[in-house]
Specification:
- The protein has 439 residues and is α/β, with parallel strands linked by helices.
- The protein has 2 domains: 172 residues, D-Maltodextrin-Binding Protein, domain 2 (3-Layer(aba) Sandwich), CATH 3.40.190.10; 221 residues, D-Maltodextrin-Binding Protein, domain 2 (3-Layer(aba) Sandwich), CATH 3.40.190.
- It is built from 19 helices and 11 strands.
- The strands form 3 sheets. A 5-stranded mixed β-sheet has the order 2-1-3-11-6.
- Helix 18 runs antiparallel to helix 19.
- The radius of gyration is 24 Å and the shape is globular.
- The relative contact order is 0.17.
Length: 439
């Protein structure tokens, strides 16, 4: 009798363990290897304390590879990921195709109305939110104030490209391993083409005319690429054709860049004394413009968390998305690492917080550039598309990457500017005809 009771008790215990195990939901999150996302992974104890029944498996990838993996997965309804880190390029396209779970039932505590209008609008289709922003950004000039002073250079709040070139020349000291300017060269529609497209906008160029004809054969594009190559060949670091956001971030933190024109989100890492050797000597300015062109290239971008319709664990995924993009998560970062490290560019409450404004000298310029970005009219010329540093059509992912490979090859010395532009023009014309845009 005793043995029977013990056996039954043991069976019940095993059943309880099995039930507990089955109640645990495992979700897979695909994300980019940028600093803010890597930091989030170290805070998971807070999430698990609130959601002990959910476990998160991470797939952390370099930017270009992440885009390929998540695009392939969602286009094939693969179901490999429950949460995807995607940009405001993908969100409206995928949301319109009904590939993403609408986020129209987030809790009142989440406070959707606190999201910056520009960011929220870029992540919505017909008023419905399809992704939650983890951080938002524009683009600006970040420079070494000590090097500028040593070189006798003054970088104004609204510099022109001529002033940038002059400053780059004077701050360059190749014998000391210091390069006047660091810019993206790694090929990819979201790598070198994000920067070069923004630069082209500031030169008065555009990707397409109103009939969807590519414009790489125009004078503004020639001036853009010629000046970009000239800056990098004369004042940039060696091997620049392999440098993307993370590589340039590291170079600047090591004191090897006089200037870096890139995403505003970088500023918190440049001013982190534990990571940056030049944390006390960083200044900021608006993205430059070409003389005579009343247009700056400050783009609008956000890295966002979205749930694919293919996920079979949507409720658990939504719990994670809400936690990771909440005001409470921002407070968690601030408590652990200081307000300077808070994920920027998504919520008005952050920019109403005096503690943050005092801790982050880049905060005001960040919110100003996000607010003044004009993705609906990125060029001084009329355009048939939306997107400040990309073109919001599905075909751009392939076209932008192909053009980026051509321009990166030119930076590596494999062709000159004219050859690169001619190649970009022909390949883009071919792909646009194939897609039915151009007759």
């Amino acid at each position: 009798m005793t043995l029977t009771i013990r056996a039954l008790m043991g069976a019940c215990a095993l059943g309880a363990l099995a039930t507990a195990a089955s109640a645990e939901t495992n979700i897979t999150v695909a994300t980019v290897n940028n600093g803010d996302m890597v930091r989030m992974q170290s805070y998971m104890d807070d999430f698990y304390a609130q959601h002990p029944d959910i476990k998160v498996e991470w797939v952390t990838l370099e930017e270009n590879i992440l885009r390929q993996r998540v695009t392939q997965d969602i286009a094939t309804n693969g179901g490999q990921f429950d949460v995807m880190t995607i940009g405001n390029y993908e969100v409206p396209i995928w949301g319109e195709r009904d590939w993403l779970v609408p986020l129209d039932d987030l809790s009142d505590a989440y406070d959707v109305d606190d999201l910056l209008p520009a960011i929220r609008g870029a992540l919505s289709v017909d008023g419905t939110l399809y992704a939650a922003p983890f951080y938002g950004e524009s683009a600006m000039v970040m420079y070494r104030t000590d090097l500028a002073e040593k070189a006798g250079v003054t970088i104004p709040e609204n510099p022109t490209w001529t002033q940038i070139k002059d400053a780059a020349a004077k701050m360059t000291d190749k014998d000391a391993g210091i390069y006047g300017i660091c810019l993206r060269g790694k090929p990819g529609w979201g790598e070198n083409m994000a920067f070069i497209s923004a630069m082209a906008n500031s030169y008065g160029a555009r990707w397409f005319d109103m009939d969807w004809r590519p414009e790489f054969d125009t004078d503004p594009w020639k001036a853009t690429l010629t000046d970009y190559l000239d800056l990098m060949e004369n004042y940039g670091p060696p091997g620049a054709s392999s440098n993307g956001f993370n590589e340039n971030l590291s170079l600047f933190q090591q004191g090897k860049c006089g200037m870096w024109i890139d995403a505003t989100v970088a500023a918190s890492f440049l001013t982190d004394p534990e990571e940056s050797q030049v944390a006390d000597n960083v200044g900021y300015a608006v993205f430059p413009n070409k003389e005579g062109v009343d247009n700056h290239g400050n783009w609008l971008w956000s890295w966002n968390l979205a749930i694919p319709k293919s996920s079979e664990k949507q409720e658990a995924a939504k719990a994670f998305v809400e936690w990771a993009t909440s005001k409470e998560y921002t407070m968690l970062v601030a408590d652990k690492e200081g307000w300077r490290a808070a994920p920027p560019g998504t919520r008005q409450s952050l920019y109403d917080n005096q503690e943050y404004l005092e801790a982050a000298p880049f905060a005001q310029l960040t919110i100003d550039t996000i607010s003044t970005a004009t993705p609906e009219k990125p060029s001084v010329q009329d355009v048939p598309y939306v997107g400040a540093q990309f073109v919001s059509i599905p075909e751009f992912q392939g076209i932008g990457t192909a053009v980026g490979q051509v321009f990166s090859a030119a930076l590596a010395g494999q062709m000159d500017a004219d050859q690169a532009l001619s190649s970009a023009q022909s390949l883009t014309e071919r792909e646009m005809r194939k897609a039915g845009y151009e007759k």
